[in-house]
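User: I'm preparing a small set of examples for a lab meeting where we compare how different chains pack in three dimensions. I only have the primary sequence for this one, and I'd like the structure in token form so I can line it up with the others. Please keep the answer compact; I'll paste it straight into my notes.
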Amino acid sequence: MLSFITSFYRFINPPPEQPFPIEYNAQWHEIETLKYFDQVGRSLLRKQLKKINARKQIVICFTNRCGSNWLAELLYATGLMGLADEFFNTERIKESCDTNQLDSFDDFVRHLPNNHSTVNKVFATKLSWDQLYFLSRLKVIPNIIPRPQFIYIVRNDVAAQALSLLVAQQTGQWKSNWNSGINGKVNFETLGDEQIIEVIAEIQFAQSQFELYFDTLGLKPYRVCYEDLQKEPELIIEEIIRYLKISTPKAWRIHPANLQLEKQRDAQSEKRLAQFHHNTNHRYVFSSHRSIG
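Assistant: Understood. Below is the structure token output for the 293-residue chain.
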């Protein structure tokens, strides 16, 4: 009887929501998204917040050029979840809201599974650290996205990741099947060691922000290393599906027809990367720390 009274009291007098426990500086996507919803006729969050219509919500935590697009495509190719993409980039938010006549941010979030989840209602998205912090600060996680499961992918050869990022920024080619070198080919002679080291520091800062989030909130994401995914993609995808506890048919598989991305590294980038590692005594290659749970 006492437990019933306690539960009923909490129902009619819910505890006050706690503020987001990590202090951070708002980044570009957060600033621009807030500006967009501050316009006349738009609102950020409505008072009555309904949860997203998805049985499972998967968040792939990524840093640029870590292999997250390939991971997302492999998971999508199983047919067991939607294709995770950067839905929370400000330009994507604006485009979706304008096209679908959505007036609030929570309407936008709830609209996402309509086009980006599978029949089994598994929705997946990619989030950078600052987007994850923003959604958590607004309480979109967990008020609208109530039970996200986290997959965190890193790249052991962070120098290769940094070089890949610099190449993408210079050429405009972020995927092998999208924006195919709109700004021409990269000039590797312009990419000095110090520039690569500076980008490595940015990547490591982003990784530290993810780790702070997981530690502060007591979360244990499924960890993926890009290099391990290269060696054993089927095994790792199978482990992820098991970790997420997604119901599967007996004979599920990765369907090759759904795989479109190709390796972008070429002989020139391999040569520049080898030169960088030689110049820095291989300081920027780290050992694998893949684990489940």
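A couple of notes for your slides: Residues 193-217 form the longest helix (25 residues). Strands lie at 56-61, 122-127, 148-154, 222-225.

User: Perfect, thanks.
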